[in-house]
């Protein structure tokens, strides 16, 4: 099993996947993007690396009845060896919070309207 390159995006995604592992659940890509506040391309690049390394597996959602036209979701979970490797990585390089919180995706800076003179 090859070790993926550790980046801040990788550590964010691994942290979320470890939480899901501990709760014995799976997460889908959109959940991951929203939770770690990363773009789709960044998250899916990390997921591809983790899947290639054998640290995670993905499975497609069975479409629920009445959900025609809605795309299926792909759910991800750590493999047992991936969970062990991710835990070792988390202990070796604990995540340091950034000095400034990032705004949630889709939210920009808003200027106050100036009062009319």
TrEMBL record:
Question: Domain named Transcription regulator PadR N-terminal: which ranges?
Answer: 23-87
Supply the SUPFAM superfamilies for this chain.
Winged helix' DNA-binding domain (SSF46785)
Q: Which InterPro entries match?
A: Metal_resp_DNA-bind_regulator (IPR052509), Tscrpt_reg_PadR_N (IPR005149), WH-like_DNA-bd_sf (IPR036388), WH_DNA-bd_sf (IPR036390)
First and last residue of the signal peptide:
none
Q: Where are the stretches annotated Disordered? A: 81-117
Parts forming coiled coils: none
The name this protein carries in UniProt is PadR family transcriptional regulator
